[in-house]
Write a structure and sequence with these properties.
Peptidase_S1; 2 helices; Trypsin_dom; Thrombin, subunit H; 2 domains; mainly beta; seven-stranded mixed beta sheet; 17 strands; six-stranded antiparallel beta barrel
Amino acid sequence: MGPTLALLLLVCGGYASGQLKDDRPNLVGPYHVSLQVNGRQYCGGTIVDDRWILTAGKCYNEYSKENSTAVVGTNNLQTGGTSYLIDRFIVHSRFHSKQFGIPHNIALVRLTTPLVYNKFVDKIEISDKHVPDNATLSSVGTDKSINMVKALPQEECLRQYHNTIMGPFVNVGNLCTVNPADQRPTFGITGSGLILEGKLVGVFRSPGLLGRYSYPNANTRVSYYHDWIQTTIANNGDEAAKTDRPSVRN
């Protein structure tokens, strides 16, 4: 077969067919997920359990129960990997898009069938620790490359957002980051993970209305929602998932 390894992934149960085009590991980590509608990516996510993807609450705006899939195990957005069907999209009960999608911008996606782990697909540990000021984190770029970003001290983030229309919504649940080279916000895939020392510490939020004015990325701090994540997963097992509701607020 030469240098290219093609693995045929059969349609079975809750996932669709696909191919891994080569033998490289996923460029941004085997835990990265592409959330798609009709083959078009609308958000990213991170594998935190064999049935669960952590993403941003604002990603629900484009979610469609009939047409959404979670694609794992590929470097290519157009081909390859495995597409899993989505059973539920659980958004934090206090998230509201009218607040610029900043506070409580977190959600969990439950798959219809468990993921099959391999070197291309695996979960990542959720951190319950505070991110040190000025720590360097990795995130996912718009082309699925790796971006390196710097975590801002909380007081610096609040200072920069002070007296802006978004300022009242930035709080301790946010993890603000900038490009370490120019201190500007970075563009990437909303809903994808922010990683520090091999653990998931944040959910990325791409710049919105104020991005062009150089305000920091107001991401979601995972440690602040650690208990919510664990409780939501525990309370939404197989029995709880036997419902036609495409989304719940929890």
